[in-house]
Amino acid sequence: QVQLVESGGGLVQAGGSLRLSCAASGRGISTWVMGWFRQAPGKDRELVAGISWTVVNTYYTDSVKGRFTISRDNAKNTVALQMNSLKSEDTAVYYCAAGRRGVRDRYDYWGQGTQVTVSS
Asked: What pairs with residue 46 in β-bridges?
């Protein structure tokens, strides 16, 4: 059983920064692919960033490249998403996810989500 718990969401002004964290637990979780998804009202959930367990492979959706950074600490079983230069269009519920395939493939477990609101 894999459990994922996000923290760090909140309200920030455009141009500001937030850091999301995800605490993961479960057998072998440090070898799983980890990712961050987001879902804005009326929109589909989208993969924002993903990272392999070796940290060699990462993925970012085009709209966040150069602004967001995903990282993980396998010793602590945590994954983070540093979000800089936030825009109003980044407003969404952000979800931590874990999977056993590639960083752009299907994810199997999800956290409960954390709200990020960027005011313009």
From this structure: 38
* 102: number of Cβ within 10 Å: 12
18-25/33-39 β-pairing: unpaired
Question: pLDDT tens-digit profile of 18-35?
Answer: 999 999 999 989 899 999
Question: Number of C-alpha atoms within 13 angstroms, CB side, residue 64?
Answer: 25
Is residue 109 a contact partner of residue 6, using CB atoms and an 8 Å limit?
Answer: no
Nearest to 114 by CA among 53, 28, 48: 48
Identify the segments of the chain with pLDDT beneath 70.
none
Q: For residue 6, which phi and psi values (nearest 5 degrees)?
A: -90, 155
Judge contact between 107 and 39, C-beta under 8 A: no
